[in-house]
Specification:
Helix content of chain A: 40-55%
Strand content of chain C: under 5%
Structural class of chain C: mainly alpha
Largest interface: A-C, 55 and 61 residues
CATH topology of the largest domain in chain A: Rossmann fold
CATH class of chain C: Mainly Alpha
CATH architecture of the largest domain in chain A: 3-Layer(aba) Sandwich
CATH class of the largest domain in chain A: Alpha Beta
Order of helices and strands of chain A: HEHEHEHEEHEHEHEHEEHEEH
Number of strands of chain C: 0
Shape of chain C: globular
Number of helices of chain C: 16
Oligomer: heterotrimer
Helix content of chain C: over 70%
Distance between the termini of chain C: 18 Å
Number of helices of chain A: 10
Chains: A alpha/beta (335), B mainly alpha (310), C mainly alpha (378)
Largest sheet of chain A: 6 strands, parallel
Number of domains of chain C: 1
CATH superfamily of the largest domain in chain A: Response regulator
CATH topology of chain C: ABC transporter involved in vitamin B12 uptake, BtuC
């Protein structure tokens, strides 16, 4: 009993001391800087997820640096907003605080954008991934044709596998995880129909352990070229590292740093062009009504080839040809 | 679709099973200690997450895997201490304090990961260790005796825990406290002391479970890397009827089913992936339902002990 | 020697003797727990070089500082209240329902299936049927662990954890296949969502430009109904008796397993209702992650409300406000969202730890009351 009382008192005293000392802490919300453009983004996962949210955050910070830092472009974010009403609250809050551009970076935010945008005609809203602007003239929609890079990775995998067995580890068969993998499988099939592709899905976007198990299963089954999607896919990369001679093909962000010795190529979502265009459009008074699709053709999708990996000339040629083919429409990435 | 019932596939299933079962074994055997003393610790998942992060971070900084393991254990102990203070001294409703611990572990590990590391990075963790001679046994040898140290340790933990619980005074005391705290108290056993100890043993093992994920199996850290495995571990304690051997059975069954369903998918068996993923969960419930021999729940499980009242 | 034997007291009277004093204590202490947790979190905030006072001011402002904050709080409080009511019933029968997430999912799926199947039905009928379907599906998902516990002694913590995963995968299956939005399919985005529900099935948005919907009335009504059910009906009495003293209940011919299974079924039903109300009121379709973790946070709300249906009303508003305010704080201070989760964890820990204080005080009071009675008798 005495111990308990002591503990309570100790905790209270410590905390009080903490609060009192707080005087030296950081100031509250950054002051509104006149003249600076203000962009707020609401994201379903963390800004460092090595995947979807990170791709947008990287682009935003890149544009910020290009424009001359926080004095020219002020950024605010809300991350881990997987609960939609929370995200809706955040979107409305940012809009009413007078942010110039409010981005809802998650396909689940569509209904919220549709509800909120009409109340703030002077704010530009952008959301993705989808192509629907709901007929509202202050809403931009954006998405990525993930199947295109998937196809190119598939071409590379088909030409670089020695065992003739390729493995795919996905989360849930939806969204760009599905379209990327559909494109990948199609790329393998079109290139070499003798190469076998096996797929597995973990049923979760975050289950790294399941991804790890899936990747090791593919390897045990003879696969020597692997790919996969979602933030949990890093588990697959980790296990691929442990086995000699296994190649990895990445998507959503450049995954080379994770395992420089085995990541052959990564498809990268580059939202910077789109962001620049939205910013320019807003300056010109065009508040929305358009939708963007990141493709190879508009440089929104890029392939990052790992210089440390010796890609055979024949495979590299085929990959570049595939990119060209997709750009000029001769190749359909989706099956 | 190729031959599903080949030796090759069976070997693969068993190999993945052992690796999947490792974190479950550490966490669930640990939770068995805790529950036998009467404390349900639902926060195992949170402990695993925080320890997984610290193990990863230590290895990232120092490159020393053993130091990483040690740090994971210490973090587990600290979390166990927190759980004990709240649940044993302050008599919290255990189901709820455990959920608090889980949320805390999830939040704190993601926060530290973001502030200290920033983005996903890999480390080189425990490597496979081939045991000479034994690994040469045909078929089973390479499966059983070519694993990481933590896999061996997890399976060694089962007989050791069994011995402690069944054959030592400490084990006796733990079970006495979980069965009848008043009686234990009246013969001079410190109920709270034993409960603190048991919860801390369990939490330290949960710490090892976390480390086994971040520096032995996946070799990296990511937000919510356990994806609820700690909760499964708690469930396995009920499955195993509060005996380390039973817990091992549950962990192996669950991991076998998980491993097998991944193989079904990889081999191209035509069933929707989501339904395949369900198999281990359904199987666990079904097996427990039809199995007759069930351990006896510690009588004072999930009950706070008030001296001189019970 | 004449032994004075105590008259057997009417158990119902015994059970309902929750005096106002105790109720007050039970309400007050959890709030103290919240305060202490916030104080400890202040230290964490300092480490992140954030001014805790400014942070908490932003938090309070976000939840209760404006009308729109209040509405957001109510929108969050609605599912918390519904799930919490179920947790309450289960707790009264000594059953821990960790299966809220799964029950929310099943309720939402069933209700959504009904709405999509009968898009042209009259609005009132459609909404009622959807709600009923949601309740029944959730109840079914709660009944399974309840039945397994009653009939086969399968521990409910194990079965509900497994059932959550099964429900989640079932939803994944439906959203990636049979129930996937045909528009998302034809647009090639393959989003994990169902088609938008027909307007007839929507719950009315009470306040324009907010998500505030009429589900809040349903939740409030049910809170009162659950109170009446637990304290004014025979079945409710049995459920509480089972929880208070299973042994004694056995002797007085109350079927413990059956009542536990029943409480689990009702808990599931309420969670299922929370699921379909969330869909009809907020999302108007099922989208990935719509459960928002209410299956777990509902447990916390229930505790905060001292496991009392009426106490749950302010508790879920407070807790909902805490969640809304925490998000505001994250935006205002630009701190990582994970920090919010860590604070939330501390809140839950400290609130759960605050029960000791209550019990100590109540015990002392009971002793003194007993002493007073004895004195009076002699």
């Amino acid at each position: 009993m005495r111990m308990m009382r002591f503990a309570v008192v100790a905790v209270l005293v410590l905390s009080m001391a903490g609060v009192v000392m707080a005087g030296g802490g950081r100031e509250a919300a950054p002051a509104v800087d006149d003249g600076a453009l203000r962009i707020a983004v609401v994201m379903p996962s963390a800004t460092n997820d090595m995947a979807f949210s990170q791709s947008m955050w990287t682009a935003l910070t890149a544009v910020q640096a290009e424009m001359g830092g926080p004095s020219a472009l002020q950024l605010s974010y809300s991350e881990n907003m997987f609960v939609v009403p929370d995200a809706a609250g955040a979107l409305r809050d940012y809009a009413s605080q007078g942010y110039d551009i409010v981005i809802g970076h998650g396909s689940q935010y569509g209904s919220s954008i549709q509800d909120i945008a009409p109340d703030f005609p002077d704010t530009v809203f952008a959301w993705g991934t989808d192509v629907n602007t709901f007929g509202l003239d202050n809403v931009y929609a954006y998405t990525a044709a993930a199947e295109q890079g998937g196809y190119v990775n598939g071409v590379l995998a088909a030409l670089m596998t020695r065992s003739g067995q390729v493995g795919v580890t996905g989360p849930v068969e939806v969204g760009d995880a599905k379209t990327y993998i559909d494109g990948f499988v199609n790329g393998v099939r079109q290139t070499d129909s003798a190469v076998r592709v096996s797929q597995s899905w973990t049923g979760s976007f975050s289950d790294v352990a399941a991804m790890t198990a899936a990747a090791s299963t593919h390897i045990a089954n003879g696969a020597d070229a692997l790919t996969g999607s979602s933030q949990s896919v890093v588990g697959s990369v980790g296990v691929a590292r442990e086995s000699d001679g296994v190649l990895w093909f990445g998507t959503q962000a450049d995954q080379t740093d994770l395992a420089p010795e085995l990541v052959v190529a990564s498809q990268i979502y580059d939202w910077t062009d789109m962001l620049r265009e939205i910013i320019a459009n807003r300056q010109a008074g065009r508040m929305g009504g358009e939708s963007y699709i990141l493709t190879f053709a508009n440089d929104g999708l890029k392939m990052a080839f790992n210089p440390a990996i010796d890609i055979p000339a024949e495979a590299m040629e085929a990959a570049l040809a595939a990119i060209e083919g997709i750009k000029n429409g001769q190749i359909r990435a989706m099956p | 679709m190729r031959d599903i019932f080949s030796f090759n596939v069976l070997a693969g299933v068993l190999q993945t099973m052992l690796s999947l079962a490792t974190p479950f074994l550490f966490a669930a055997v640990g939770e068995t200690f805790s529950q036998l003393s009467g404390v349900v610790n639902l926060g195992v998942d949170g402990i695993m997450l925080l320890s997984a992060f610290f193990a990863f971070y230590t290895v990232l900084l120092t490159g020393n895997i053993w130091l990483g393991l040690l740090v994971a254990i210490i973090v587990g102990l600290l979390m166990g201490l927190l759980m004990s203070v709240v649940s044993v001294t302050f008599k919290a409703q255990q189901g709820i304090s455990g959920i608090g611990l889980q949320i805390l572990g999830l939040g704190l590990s993601s926060l530290l990961f973001k502030v200290l590391v920033g983005t996903v990075r890999t480390v080189s963790g425990f490597r496979r260790m081939r045991i000479p001679l034994l690994a040469d046994i045909p078929f089973l040898g390479p499966i059983l005796f070519n694993n990481t140290v933590l896999v061996y340790a997890a399976f060694l933990l089962v007989p050791v825990s069994w011995f402690i619980l069944e054959r030592t005074t400490l084990g006796l005391k733990i079970k006495a406290v979980g069965q009848n705290p008043s009686a234990a108290d009246s013969v001079g056993i410190s109920v709270n002391g034993i409960r603190y100890l048991s919860v801390c043993i369990g939490s330290a093992l949960a710490g090892v479970a976390g480390a086994s994920i971040s520096i032995s199996i996946s070799n990296l850290f990511q937000d919510n890397i356990t994806a609820g495995q700690g909760f499964i571990a708690v469930a396995l304690v009920y499955f195993g009827g509060w005996s380390p051997i039973g817990v091992m059975g549950g962990a192996l069954l669950f991991s076998f089913a998980t491993s097998a369903q991944i193989w079904l998918q990889v081999l191209g068996v035509d069933i929707p992936a989501s339904l395949a993923v369900m198999i281990p969960y359904i199987l666990t419930i079904v097996v427990l339902t039809v199995s007759v021999n069930r351990g006896k729940q510690p009588a004072a499980l999930n009950k706070q002990f008030f001296r001189g009242e019970n | 020697m004449k032994e004075k034997r105590q008259k057997p007291q009417d158990p119902n009277q015994l059970l309902s003797r929750d005096s106002w004093f105790e109720l007050g204590l039970r309400t007050l202490f959890p709030f103290l727990g919240v305060l202490v947790a916030l104080l400890v979190s202040a230290v964490v905030l300092l480490f992140l070089r954030v001014n805790p006072l400014a942070a908490y001011a932003a938090m309070f402002r976000g939840a209760f500082g404006s009308m729109s904050g209040w509405y957001q709080t109510f929108v969050k409080a609605t599912p918390l209240l519904l799930v919490g009511l179920g947790i309450c019933i289960a707790f009264k029968a000594s059953v821990i329902n960790i299966g809220g997430e799964g029950q929310i999912i099943m309720g939402a799926l069933a209700g959504t299936a009904v709405a999509l199947r009968f898009p042209d039905a009259p609005a009132f009928m459609l909404v009622t049927t959807c709600l009923l379907a949601g309740f029944l599906a959730g109840a079914f998902w709660g009944f399974i662990p309840g039945y397994l516990k009653a009939r086969f002694k399968v521990n409910e913590i194990l079965s509900t954890i497994m059932m959550n995963h099964i429900a989640l995968q079932f939803m994944n299956y439906l959203l990636s296949g049979p129930m996937m939005d045909p528009e998302a399919r034809s647009a090639g985005t393959f989003l994990a969502q169902t088609a938008r529900l027909p307007a007839g099935s929507w719950l009315t948005r009470i306040v324009p430009q907010t998500l505030m919907h009429s589900g809040v009335y349903i939740a409030l009504t049910l809170a009162i109904l659950v109170y009446v059910f637990l304290w004014r009906t025979t079945i409710g009495f049995r459920i509480r008796a089972v929880g208070l003293n299973p042994q004694a209940s056995l002797y007085s011919a109350i079927n413990v397993p059956v009542n536990q299974a029943l409480s689990m079924t009702l808990a599931g039903g309420l969670a299922g209702l929370a699921g379909i109300i969330e869909v009809l009121g907020v999302h108007r379709r099922i989208i990935e992650g719509f459960t928002g973790g209410y299956g777990f946070t509902g447990i916390v709300a229930a505790l905060l409300g001292s496991l009392h249906p009426i106490g749950l009303i302010p508790a879920s508003i407070l807790f909902g406000g805490l969640l809304v305010g925490a998000n505001t704080m994250q935006r205002a201070m630009q701190v990582p969202a994970a920090l919010i989760q860590a604070i939330l964890g501390l809140v839950v820990l400290f609130v759960s730890g605050s029960t000791l204080g209550i019990q100590q005080i109540i015990k002392k009071r009971r002793i003194s009351v007993t002493a007073a009675i004895k004195e009076d008798q002699s």
